[in-house]
Automatic annotation (TrEMBL):
GO terms for cellular component: cytosol. GO terms for biological process: response to hydroperoxide. It comes from the Bacteria. It comes from Leifsonia shinshuensis. InterPro entries: YaaA. This is Peroxide stress protein YaaA.
Amino acid sequence: MLVLLPPSETKRDGGEATPLAVKSLGFPALNATRRGVVADTVALSRTPEAAAKALKLGPKQASEIVRNRGLRRAETMPALLRYTGVLYDALDAPSLTEEQWRFAARSVAVQSALLGLVRADDRIPAYRLSFDSRLSPTLKKRWAEVCAAELAVVDGVILDLRSEGYAALGPLPEREGVHYLRVLARDESGTVRALNHFNKQAKGLFTRAILEHGEDFASTDALLAWAAAEGYELTRSVDRPGELDLVVPEVVGVPGKLSAVLRSAS
């Protein structure tokens, strides 16, 4: 199976003094595009005013442009450690066991605007580039076709947790077992609606649960059976073909409560 995660705007600094080695990354068919995007990002950073406009950065974010300028010689670390923010805090990659890391390396990929699909353990630098950053050709034109081709040959379940903008950089194949995951909340009256603020936290916690379980789900039914046994309310969407709904109680709106109630009592 493959769990697809979005990147985050925020990145952890530092790493080991091992510069980016494109040829060592997963999904090697993306390497030519990777080299082009990295080269253009570095070149753009040499003109701070143009870079700020293209990356939609304010005056206080000038350090992001400096960071991009040094991409080729920057320190690197595994992708799951590089990204920070709500989803990655909930996933808590630093506390994964060696066995869980091995499973993550096979079963988790992040949709990077800079490097395309990267494996959980691919060593990457800190950078600033988003799906809507203004490069020419556009990032969608560069990534969509080549990333879609890589996803098309993935076997088993593909569970897409990416946001809409990043999902467009790597369209999913149309087949059984490929699903976008939507997080929903149920209030006390039973009404189900989209979960907004805690959406990322729920996705991070659910990904963590999959990594702790460590099963390479061969089918959607196998994934749903495991989820039900663990107390998660994960079902096929009734009105959105191909999607899965993860429903959590409304109490998740209370900070700190999500991890306790992600497993539904229903």
